[in-house]
Structure formats: C-alpha cells, structure tokens
C-alpha cells in the first residue's frame, strides 16, 4: 500500500465547492474546501483507525472530494469507499471524478435509513466532514450511534471541525464517547481540528452489535485497507 501521496499539493478548482456553499451555506459550513494537507492528515487518521476486515470506509459530507482523493492516493481503493452527500450536484461531480466510488445521495444524519436503502452493511471506519456545530445535538448523537452500529468493536469516527472544542459532545445521547484530539492543521482556511471518537472499551459496542457479529476476522492490528 502506498503511504505517501503521489502528487504535490495543487490548488483545486474552488468553483464547484463555492456553488455547493451558495446553494446551502449552513449545510456546507464554509466556502472553502479542505486543503491538501488537511485531507492527507484526515485520510491517514482514518486509515490508521480502520478496523481490519472487509468493511467500507464511510465518508459523510465529502463535498467535492478532497478527502476522498487523499484516501485513494494513500492506498484505499475507491471501491472500498462509500460517501454520503446530501447535495445532488456534488454527488454527480463525485461520480464523475472517482470511478468505482459508491456515492449515496442522502441525509447522513439519518444514516441508518440511508445505509439500509443503499444496501451498505459494514464500515471499518467513518470520516465525517459534516458541519456538526450547526446540527442539533440529538441529530448528531443519532448519526454517531448509527455510525458505530455499522462498525465492529474498536471502530472510530474521525471528525474535523473549525472550533477549539469537539463539535459533537462526547456525552450526547448517552453514548459516553471517548473523544481524542489528534491535532490541528494550520495549512487550512480556517485552521482545522481533527478529532477521533470511539466507544469506551467497556461499552461492549452495544451500538455496533449487528456489525460485530458479521465482521470477519482480520490482522490483529494495523490498517485494514486494502
Ligand atoms: C464542511 S463541508 C466538507 C466538504 C469536504 N469534506 C471537504 O473536506 O472539503 C460539508 C459537506 O457536508 C455536506 N452535508 C452537510 N450536511 C449533510 C447531511 N446531513 N448529509 C449529507 N451531507 C451533508 C455538505 O453538502 C458539504 O458537502
């Protein structure tokens, strides 16, 4: 698996993202897409957190796909990634941009229904670019609960946010999550904080019962992809 990005940082065309932002500023959150450097760090964190096995990397709110591209460049095949994006035009752009990517148009805050409709059973890691600061805490908690249900024990959600505090309250919805600050990427407009959420070890992955039973065994540790 390649661990370094094969290309140099380039300036992506900002127009598709700007158009998405102008259609729904609250849902998109900020008129600039994630930078090359942030996307790379997010992809590395996601792949490092992936549970071994055959689940998909689930990306919520991919926008124009900078983080999707970084995942692919770091060795995760497009066919192992499922993206859930609400904006129809961005979905079409993602389909054109990444051959083999599973693009699901839908509301990621209704993750269980969306994944069920799309026939997606298992995830090995979740990367969320959803603007959780603008989301009601109960909706964010439901989204996270559904995400952990889709993952086996040890699964993680990587979330990025502009603020200084975690954008999803670790205690929301009674989940009692462990939130770990992984770092801040300053080469981003604005600087971006990266958080990792996990269920506590004693939780027994109650939120993930379904996935836990069906996930095949993989290597003891390390990256699950490919
Ligand atoms: C802050 S942007 C992040 C975009 C991209 N991941 C990046 O790094 O540049 C948030 C994205 O989430 C999408 N989004 C917001 N709310 C959503 C929801 N409830 N379900 C699915 N996608 C959503 C927006 O359309 C937008 O593409």
Question: Describe it for me?
Answer:
The chain has 8 helices and 7 strands; from the N terminus they run H-H-H-E-H-E-H-E-H-E-H-E-E-E-H. The protein has a 7-stranded mixed β-sheet, sandwiched between helices. Helix 5 links the parallel strand 2 (81-85) and strand 3 (102-105). Helices cover 32% and strands 18% of the residues. It has a single domain (34-213), classed as Vaccinia Virus protein VP39 (Rossmann fold, 3-Layer(aba) Sandwich), CATH 3.40.50. Helix 3 (36-49) packs across helix 4 (66-73). It has helices spanning 15-23, 25-28, 36-49, 66-73, 88-97, 111-118, 137-149, 209-214; strands at 56-60, 81-85, 102-105, 123-128, 156-161, 178-185, 192-198. The protein is of the alpha/beta class and 226 residues long. It starts with 14 loop residues before the first helix and ends in a 12-residue tail after the last helix. The model is unreliable at 1-6 and 208-224 (pLDDT under 50). The radius of gyration is 16 Å and the shape is globular. It binds S-adenosylmethionine. S-adenosylmethionine binds next to helix 2, helix 4 and strand 2.
């Amino acid at each position: 698996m390649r661990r370094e990005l094969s290309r140099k940082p380039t300036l992506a065309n900002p127009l598709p993202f700007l158009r998405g932002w102008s259609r729904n500023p609250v849902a998109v959150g900020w008129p600039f897409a994630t930078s090359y450097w942030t996307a790379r760090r997010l992809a590395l964190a996601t792949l490092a957190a992936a549970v071994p096995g055959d689940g998909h990397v689930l990306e919520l709110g991919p926008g124009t796909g900078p983080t999707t591209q970084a995942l692919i460049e770091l060795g995760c095949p497009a066919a192992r990634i499922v993206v859930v994006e609400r904006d129809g035009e961005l979905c079409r752009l993602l389909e054109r941009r990444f051959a083999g990517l599973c693009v699901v148009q839908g509301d990621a805050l209704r993750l269980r229904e969306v994944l069920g409709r799309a026939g997606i059973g298992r995830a090995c890691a979740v990367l969320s670019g959803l603007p959780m600061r603008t989301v009601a805490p109960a909706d964010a908690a439901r989204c996270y609960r559904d995400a952990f249900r889709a993952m086996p024990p040890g699964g993680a959600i990587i979330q990025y946010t502009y603020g200084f505090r975690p954008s999803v309250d670790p205690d929301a919805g009674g989940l009692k999550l462990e939130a770990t600050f992984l770092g801040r990427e300053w080469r981003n407009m604005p600087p971006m904080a990266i958080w990792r959420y996990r269920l506590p070890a004693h939780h027994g992955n109650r939120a993930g019962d379904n996935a836990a039973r069906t996930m095949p065994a993989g290597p003891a540790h390390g990256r699950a992809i490919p």
